[in-house]
Amino acid sequence: MGFAWSNMFVHPDEDPRTDGGYTGERDTLVGYLRDQRLTLELKCADLTAEQMAARAVEPSKMSLLGLVRHMAGVEQGWFRNHMAGFEMPRHYREDNPDGDFDGAIADDEVVKEAFTRWRSEIAFAEDYVDSLDDLGYLGEGGLALREVLVHMIEEYARHNGHADFLRERIDGRVGQ
Questions:
Q1: List of residues 6+ apart from 157 with CB closer than 8 A
Q2: Which InterPro entries match (predicted)?
Q3: pTM to 2 decimal places
Q4: Count of structural domains within the chain
């Protein structure tokens, strides 16, 4: 049996995430969302394309790669479409509502593209949120920015729970 952190993702001294301690509502919401995004990235670290595309259990189509693709679409949907008012089809879903998971195949280029798209959507979202002073700002879809930020924290937290199980099934790494 190893020491307490032996099968964890990151030793506490090297963890890029914060442990709370935010000041004010904006810092709290933005900070928790940032940490949730980093958690998904940590769950996917150091895996091959085959491992990224590994399905959970039949009949589920869920995989870590599918989650990254899904979250690229979620980021796009809430920040580009709902808040900023762009009218764009959701990533990976033009022809198939499950395309984010169905298209999550074991191919290095598919993995690279998914992370590029996901990070691009995060960059847009961060710039968009930084451009607004008021968390009560109503986006084009009619919701306040604070409500979208809370929803995104919830969305990542739920899917990071899925990612915990997927990663543990792949190589035994747990927690965090």
A1: 36
A2: DinB/YfiT-like, MST-like
A3: 0.89
A4: 1
> Alpha-carbon distance 25 to 31, whole Å?
10
CA-to-CA dists, residue 125 to 46, 79, 96, 174, angstroms: 26, 6, 25, 29
Q: How far apart are alpha carbons 75 and 155 in whole angstroms?
A: 10
DSSP annotation string for 57-82: STT----HHHHHHHHHHHHIIIIIII
Q: Using 50 as the pLDDT threshold, list the residues of the chain that sit under it.
A: 1-5
Residue 7 domain-assigned (yes or no): no
Q: What is the CATH number of the domain that holds 118?
A: 1.20.120.450
Does residue 19 sit within a domain?
no
Residue 89 included in any domain: yes
**Cα gap 128→149, rounded to integer Å:** 12
